[in-house]
Amino acid sequence: MAVSVACCCFSFLNAPVKLQPSPLCFVAASSPRAKLNPENLKRLTVRVKEEQDCNNDGGGTQTMSAFKSSFGSKKDKKDSSHPSSDLRNDPAKIHDASFLDAVVKVYCTHTAPDYSLPWQKQRQFTSTGSAFMIGDGKLLTNAHCVEHDTQVKVKRRGDDRKYVAKVLLRGVDCDIALLSVESEDFWKGAEPLRLGHLPRLQDSVTVVGYPLGGDTISVTKGVVSRIEVTSYAHGSSDLLGIQIDAAINPGNSGGPAFNDQGECIGVAFQVYRSEETENIGYVIPTTVVSHFLTDYERNGKYTGYPCLGVLLQKLENPALRECLKVPTNEGVLVRRVEPTSDASKVLKEGDVIVSFDDLRVGCEGTVPFRSSERIAFRYLISQKFAGDIVELGIIRAGEPKKVQVVLRPRVHLVPYHIDGGQPSYIIIAGLVFTPLSEPLIEEECEDTIGLKLLTKARYSVARFRGEQIVILSQVLANEVNIGYEDMNNQQVLKFNGTHIRNIHHLAHLIDMCKDKYLVFEFEDNYVAVLEREASNSASLCILKDYGIPSERSADLRDPYVDPVDDTQALNQGFGDSPVSNLEIGFDGLVWA
């Protein structure tokens, strides 16, 4: 059985890096970040120009121009004195190339949350990875290399001193993080890398980093095998990726990949392993790096990649197209629209999307890419930013229409990562409530979570922004909760007859309750009842007995704001199709 495994940074000492149930896997983090001035970031942003030409048959072609950045001018690129200019003539000289000095080793100490015991942290562990200089005192690496970081240090090639680094910006979905080092000594004689254009198939590529097997810098060579929309393990997202056959090993993550001109064409971040394949590695292209930096420049923070929020079916079958009154061999069928997306206001199930910003969409869900290639339709969405407005050409009941949709980041009912790092929780008379999340499922194991919760996690979309699946994770035994000690990992649906919208809503309902009894209604029609005054009296004793600092997480002390704008959303049922492309076993369906 084939298994895709992320090339995460090499971890050692106290704990191994955990693997998630998805085909590509990582650890996720959040930590206090230093502020980064967006004006300074403008000099870091790689400008990407896209030119679209139309053929006589109406099909579009899309050409990527070369990337330009402040890291190197055209004059620099033509300067024959630059070591990288000799690589095309003599690749053996790569060990003398000055751009290797811009690649550094990353040492990170991680302290991940304990999702089963959400009031505490897990035991810390350490890992190593790679990073590289991009100018203005900044380094670029993978987000998974510095997730849940408590300390980050970097070391330059040929130096025995480690320097403290700060995580300025982290993009979980694109697996990129921006670091800074304040020490002036670290930057003496440093030359940032130049970012190159998107490569072509069979272009030579050199991967540089600090993988396991030694302490010094490592260089491996290969070629570009494929360029397509790829599943990103760390962010559980689908973005443009470069597949290469150069060896990538744990510790290479965050290191640059170079072309023959010594330009950085991307960031090494994951590999695919199975018994049938070998030497399949993946690189984050500079288009994604540019999007990451531009996002922060525009918004003053990282907002993430937007989505359309629709489940699409390919229209390869002629009878299906004829039934839908689609006159040409193009278009994709809308099978489901997420209630939290702006597309729910203008798109309906049964609509056929035939164009995206006037670029025609093929019946296999692909669009023209560069001069003679095609790529998945969702690539066009990934080129946009949160808040961008796109124009869709659709066919509805045989009638062509034009509609506009605002793109927003996707709302996950069961999140893959926890914002703020530490999970929310509240303890009532020893009953521990927390939101269901993928890290919790991973930590508890699927057998412990149960089939019903797993089904909801895999097949349910959020009905409104802010919705969560709140579960009773465990019961801290005390005489006040006798009879409930064995309850664990069960969804709580109602409190005193009111549907629970999220963990903050539950805390609010409990705080406002003046009734004699606290009545919790769970899945499978199970009911737990506590006497309110007795529960309040026992809380301090329970916290003391179990060494818990607080009966709730800090975020639940803030005033509660109702997230529901439309009360009808509460009455919508759960879906019947997977919420992730990783869960769809049929090639004919895909989330955009």
Automatic annotation (TrEMBL):
According to its UniProt entry, the protein's GO biological process terms are:
proteolysis
Region of interest (Disordered), ranges: 52-90
Residue limits of the Protease Do-like PDZ domain?
A: 414-555
Q: Which UniProt keywords apply?
A: Hydrolase, Protease, Serine protease
Instruction: Tell me which InterPro entries the record gives.
Output: DEGP_PDZ, DEGP_PDZ_sf, PDZ_sf, Peptidase_S1_PA, Peptidase_S1_PA_chymotrypsin, Peptidase_S1C
One Pfam family cited in the UniProt record for this chain: PDZ_3
In which residue ranges is the amino acid composition biased (Basic and acidic residues)? 73-90
Q: Name one GO molecular function term.
A: serine-type endopeptidase activity
Family, per entry: Belongs to the peptidase S1C family.
Q: What is this protein called?
A: Protease Do-like 2, chloroplastic isoform X2
Give the organism the record lists. Raphanus sativus
